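Running co-folding for adenosine-5'-triphosphate.
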Amino acid sequence: MADDGMLMNFFIREDLVGTKSVFKGGRWKDRLLAKKSLQRRKDKKTRDEPLTGSNAVPAKLRETVSNDDVSRPTKRQKLDGAHPRSNSTATKPKEVVSSLFTYNPKAKPSAAAQTQTEDVPALEPSNAPLPASASPFTSLGLSPFLSTHLTQNLSLTAPTAIQKAVITQLLKEDSDAFIQAETGSGKTLAYILPILQRILALSKPSSETPVNGADKAGKLDRTSGLFALILAPTRELTHQISAVLTRLLRPLPWLVAGTVTGGATKNHEKSRIRKGINILVATPGRLADHLENTEVLDVSSVRWLVLDEGDRLMELGFEEEIKGIVKKLEERQDKRKLGRLNVVGLSERRTTVLCSATMKIGVQKLGEISLKDAVHIKVDTETFISPTTNQDAAEQKPQGKETAFLTPAQLKQSYIVVPPKQRLVTLAALLMRTFARKGSVMKAIVFLSCADSVDFHFEVFARKAVLPPKETTPSDQNSKSHQRTRKPEKRDTSPPKEESATEPNSTKRKLDIPTISPTPILSSPSNPSLMIHKLHGSLEQKLRTATLQSFTRSTDPSILLCTDVASRGLDLPNIDLVIEYDPPFSSDDHLHRVGRTARAGKEGRACCFLMPGPEEGYISILRSCAGGELGWVKGEDAENVLKKGFVNQITHNTTKDNVDVLTIQEGKWDDRATDWQLDVERWVIDDKCAGELARKAFTSHVRAYATHVVAERGIFDVKGLHLGHLAKAFALRERPGHMGRGNGNANTNGRRHRGERRRVSEGEANRNDGKAQRGNDDGLGGGGDEGQDAARKMRKKMREQAGAGASEFNIG
Ligand SMILES: Nc1ncnc2c1ncn2[C@@H]1O[C@H](COP(=O)(O)OP(=O)(O)OP(=O)(O)O)[C@@H](O)[C@H]1O
């Protein structure tokens, strides 16, 4: 770690003045400086004996420090608890606080050169619906009933390119499918619609036809059997898929969809299964559990199995569960073949659909486990040609070249190179600037590396700042109200009641939930009701659900601070901006994070924070994820962001009569940024809980930093972190002691830590370590020679697909 020679938190205890002192530890320069300082104070004590004391020394200490080392830029002295510009006669120990604006590493000129300010228009959307006239839903083979429902009730005018391709294929043949498409392109409807249409085509045998109304004659009901299973990696995603199903099934009340997920009450799930479910959405761990222990769960009529977010399912170590599920489906379906089916039109073969953004080894393995005769369906976005001319793009594509999964073409991405000390103020400035005007931005997501960091930043932004006035007067200096930071408000920590769909989205209700708060510190007079939410995997499931619901339904401008638990698959409406405050752990994570905006043809912006040095190497990865030269990736000037963010410092206070008062203070932007930072630092010092939160966040963040994928560890090298500077981003004046940086062991420690983070975040039990069992055909579907042969061919094809980039594979 580089050392910039800064004297951080260095102070000399009053009781040492006049005694013989031995200085140990640190650098020789610092020891010498401390010795000299002590000597001068001894001399002064002798000279001004009557004046000496705690009141006299602090006023001179700043001079002493700055005169001692003339080459060092002037630092602002922190007189513990008081504003640095005040002449307060504090009696507490004195310390020199590292300035936000000195000794900062600079961004490379190459990164600065890429900073462009002109607002170049973004490209044509790559995930938008196709023109309605050219491709109505009916042209895909969907029934007039479903097409009308989509257009009239769900306001969907036409399918997206991937929907067109998938629906046509799945309605045409019973073959398995591997769907690969960019974020926000409508994959959920792409696989649900054909399944639904097929289920609607089924009927009861005439002898079983109910006589309760001619319109229902022959139609299935919830007791007719479970026909489709959809597996998703997270509980949030299962609930989201279930919500899509509920909307689709509204005019079809005789069909029922349900969910089983970790964290929910098993008995409750069992009783719903007993009543009958036709389409079940599940997390793999909980489904495997039910298959083992819930006798009423009959999967003999399951004819569609969907594995959504396949890459994530494998990353989370669900391989064993999925193998077990596939095996049980095979066994129970085979047994049932011998018996009598109570449904007419049910195919003998099960169709499996695998959705994944990437074609990684894990996905290949998942394909080997689950797919038999698969068609690879994807839409070419390589050349960023709008869907109307996608045909041209396909024709222009060089033969044999694999298309990478890219960010949506219309997404405007930026990066900002910020020195570690300025990270927190720059984030605050960016959010203040973003939400300065009401209506300009509705919702933003900020991604952080770990749950502890989310908790800390949530408290930072949820508190009310008590900043010192611009010009301190003697009365101000004596006024405690300017020197004491208010403690974070106590929130009710009791678990929230589940919100019903019809419940009004009142602010009062939001405040009952400890993960939601107003953020006065980021609000502005023109946008006073800004709300902040937090989400991570260590929260109770009820809280996660309630938070997400509140953020989704909020009509107030809102910010969501979260870990990667919210990066995959979640479809949160009106997200205008995604901020990757902590860079993603892999480029795949980046694609998914920024994919929360710019969905279904809508506009969106994303901004990635990087630190000067090796991290600037990530700019080229951002560019390649955006499609190289054609992508919209710009650099933002960090100083500009600070200037704009701190152009008007807002103070938010509550009077005795409980009236909120916003005051605009004028002054220099760098002073305001410094005041803002010092205010947070004072809070962290004064409030024990806040201090603990900050230290935990810092330590967890550094550990998480060591878990970037191997390929990117040269860019995100934990050994190169300047921990002293980084501490300031957590409002700490020095790095917490006794923390391993994990060098040498960092990667393994870090890996384990990340694994833990993931397990907790998904809350699923019985996860295996994901050991590969290549060449073992167990659970590959079918068993026997035929099954093994199909699996072998599947493997071969998928490897070819990953390597050479054929656009389609079929195994006969
Ligand atoms: N044909 C359509 N026309 C307009 N909007 C659509 C259409 N199909 C889906 N959408 C909307 O697009 C959004 C994204 O859909 P969905 O969540 O299925 O995308 P996805 O491809 O699964 O994204 P991700 O890869 O991030 O999981 C949803 O809000 C959905 O309602």
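Result summary
Residues 129, 156, 159-160, 163, 181, 183-189, 569, 571, 595, 599-600 surround adenosine-5'-triphosphate (CB under 6 Å).
The chain has a mean pLDDT of 74.
Job closed.
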